[in-house]
Design goal:
The complex is a heterodimer of chains A (about 350) and B (about 350). With about 350 residues, chain A is of the alpha/beta class. In chain A, about 35% of the residues lie in helices and about 10% in strands. In chain A, strands 2-1-3-4 form a 4-stranded parallel sheet. In chain A, strands 5-7 form a two-stranded antiparallel ribbon. Classes of the chains: A alpha/beta (about 350), B alpha/beta (about 350).
Chain lengths: ~350, ~350
């Protein structure tokens, strides 16, 4: 079956208008799940431009050479780096070696609002591939810890409170998250400092650590176009912002964390739902989310699933004892530390693995 | 005949009933045209225990009024918006559904015209006044339509899009009337929208076109409706979850001069409907492109097939017609003598 990337490449190779100069620039955006949002913002910043998104998400039938042949038809190519698993015969480096009119840009990742969001890996799969759960690849570190520690759901729910978040450092990651984000931009010669300030002033700007809101993409797109020398025109973007990513997973900003940053949060977990014709999609309360995560995890062997942070918690007597104590479970052979900020070895970094 | 989304929802609803699947909360049905998704989605977020089914009236369906009413009667709450004949088989409309449905709670189809005073509907009198569609769906620019009917070239039509013309035509004087009409719509259905209107206004332009509100508008309507039946009505951080179906449809711009008047930002970018986001971005026009596009659409019709309620008066009124011709830089006499 053809993927959307296959369809795009075939359409571009067959498009005669790409072979002759038009009134506006011809732009290709090669990127992961963020491709539509970047491309859409570029189109609105320059309505005369012909902008085509090349989504690199599912392994296509076409190989890297065909992809490069299609990309050569464009005046400007904006490319997010991708690894060897995505397109047969090459990576983004292969494209970089072949194209001159190229601007590289990073995947926009910001972890400051979602410190509990982690990926869970399957040790038995090649490269420890990530497993899906109710929210696709996104899991809760606290829920996964609770499962691995053998806690019942009711006990797991007791971990979702301000004292635990304080102890595990969930209120202390903003600076590291910002630095990590800005450093990532700098690697691509992009300066996001002013943008980050502007986004922060609008409140929450991420649906999950890897899914920004549309106004983020507008600023990124503008900077990329300016860097490439593509003319841009100011636009009242909020009046046109088709939001592809909000149809995907929304990982909540827990109310305690949201309050810390001065906006309102929730424990509503939203599933991915792309067809809006008659259903509104699926949502989970915290209890249902934890219960369903447990169900997913139970389909694997006990030691099959892993996450670096949770392994650290489990392997550290003090951290583990603290969390079990907060869950209201007396740890065997451990002394629960009883909350507070003492458990320094619990703290997570901005990498939030 | 292909099944419409309404047909599929009716079938899905009876399937669920046959399987005796019962949610922990109430079963709620939302019936209506383009705005119904926004209300249904907001209701789900406000009342996570509820099962929310949307019965969208957007295309011609196989389902008739009786079947629809019978299906809806199985729900605990049914919230309905008015809809025109032509969608339900057998000539059904919201009027006929009202007659069949005992438990319907009706709410208004929101219309607010102040941001888009140039927007008109154009219809074909030779085909039962069926709406004529262009790139922005049934929404047309009165000035473009006037220019076309007056025989003005595209460049002349372009000169009509300016502050002086908008002032002369009263485009800056419509807020009060539009607000009063919106509040009256609410009142007719027992809803007081006055505080909401103020809140929406403080967020800037809250409409994509005269009948396409932004998601937070539908969220407030959903809250009111849920409150009326004693179900949870928030508040929640809706902006974090606001899936916007309507923005994928056509967008009629708020012209910069009008936007500036209201303290919001505007543009002359016209957006076509585009629902499949996987490989294309959809179609957009700047003002010259849009005028050319509309001229192309009108050119496919015979003159007697194009009608509206506003432009015909402008054309018939010598003073208005002269004024617009003058602003377009094509005095009437010159055009007439050229013709």
């Amino acid at each position: 079956m053809l993927t959307t990337l296959d369809q795009r490449v075939i359409a571009s190779l067959r498009d005669r208008s790409l072979r002759r100069p038009g009134s506006g620039p011809r732009i290709a955006v090669v990127a992961n799940c963020q491709n539509f949002s970047i491309a859409y913002a570029m189109k609105l910043l320059n309505v005369e431009a012909m902008v085509h998104p090349f989504p690199v998400m599912f392994k296509p039938w076409i190989g890297i050479k065909t992809l490069i042949r299609a990309l050569k038809l464009y005046d400007y190519v904006f490319l997010q780096p991708f690894g060897p698993r995505y397109v047969r015969g090459g990576t983004s480096d292969t494209i970089v070696a072949e194209l001159k009119n190229l601007v590289l840009f990073p995947t926009i990742v910001f972890t400051g609002f979602h410190p509990d969001q982690i990926y869970v890996e399957d040790r038995t799969l090649e490269d420890n591939a990530r497993i899906g759960g109710p929210l696709g690849p996104y899991h809760s570190a606290l829920a996964f810890f609770a499962y691995r520690a053998g806690l019942p759901v009711d006990a797991a729910l007791r971990l979702f409170n301000r004292d635990v978040f304080e102890a595990v450092g969930y209120f202390d990651i903003w600076n590291e998250a910002s630095d990590a984000f800005l450093r990532e931009g700098e690697k691509f010669s992009l300066d996001f400092r002013e943008d980050l300030l502007r986004w922060t002033r609008r409140g929450l700007f991420m649906y999950s650590s890897i899914h920004p809101k549309p106004f983020v993409f507008l600023d990124v797109a503008r900077q990329l176009m300016q860097k490439a020398g593509v003319p841009v025109t100011p636009i009242n973007y909020d009046n046109y912002a088709v939001d592809d990513l909000v149809r995907g997973v929304v990982y909540p900003v827990y109310p305690e964390i949201a309050e810390f940053y001065g906006f309102s949060g929730s424990y509503i977990f939203k599933g991915a739902h792309f067809s809006l014709t008659h259903n509104v999609g699926e949502f989970w309360t915290l209890r249902r989310f934890v219960t369903d995560c447990y169900r997913f995890y139970a389909t694997y062997k006990p030691d099959q699933l892993t996450n670096e942070r949770v392994e650290t918690w489990l392997g550290d007597t003090e951290a583990s004892g603290f969390l079990l104590g907060m869950a209201g479970v007396q740890p065997r052979g451990l002394n629960p530390s009883g909350g507070g900020r003492g458990a320094a070895n619990l703290a997570v970094g901005a990498s939030l693995g | 005949m292909l099944l419409a989304s309404l047909d599929r929802q009716v079938i899905a609803s009876w399937q669920k009933r046959a399987l005796k699947r019962r949610p922990s909360g109430p079963r709620i049905a939302i019936v209506g045209p383009c705005q119904s998704f926004g209300v249904a989605y907001a209701m789900k977020l406000l009342d996570l225990e509820a099962e929310i089914d949307r019965f969208s009236i957007v295309s011609r369906s196989w389902t008739d009024t009786k079947t629809l009413a019978r299906t809806l009667e199985t729900y605990d709450y049914v919230f309905c918006q008015d809809f025109a004949p032509g969608y339900i088989r057998g000539g059904g409309s919201s009027e006929t559904l009202r007659g069949e449905l005992r438990k319907g709670i009706w709410f208004p189809l929101l219309i607010f015209t102040a941001y888009h005073p140039d927007l008109i509907l154009v219809f074909d009198p030779t085909k039962g006044n069926s709406l004529i569609h262009c790139g922005t769906g049934p929404c047309h620019s009165a000035l473009v339509f006037f220019a076309y009917r007056a025989g003005l070239p595209v460049e002349a039509a372009l000169r009509l899009f300016r502050r002086e013309v908008y002032e002369a035509l009263g485009y800056f004087d419509v807020w009060e009337g539009a607000a009063a009409a919106l509040l009256e719509q609410g009142r007719q259905y027992g809803l007081d929208l006055s505080a909401d209107l103020v809140r929406w206004t403080t967020r800037g332009c809250f409409m994509y076109s005269v009948n396409h509100p932004k998601p937070y508008v539908m969220y407030d309507i959903a809250r009111m409706l849920l409150r009326s039946v004693g179900r949870p009505s928030g508040p929640i951080d809706f902006d974090t979850y606001a899936v916007d179906d309507i923005v994928r449809g056509y967008i009629f711009p708020v012209y910069p001069e009008i936007a500036e008047f209201y303290g919001v930002s505007g543009s002359y970018i016209f957006k076509a409907s585009h629902y499949r986001l996987s490989k294309n971005l959809g179609r957009f026009w700047d003002l010259p492109g849009y005028i050319q596009h509309c001229y192309g659409v009108y050119g496919r019709y015979r003159p007697e097939q194009l009608a509206d309620y506003r432009v015909k008066d402008w054309l018939a009124d010598a003073a208005t017609s002269k004024l617009l011709h003058d602003f377009a830089g094509v005095p009437r006499g010159r055009l007439a003598s050229a013709a």
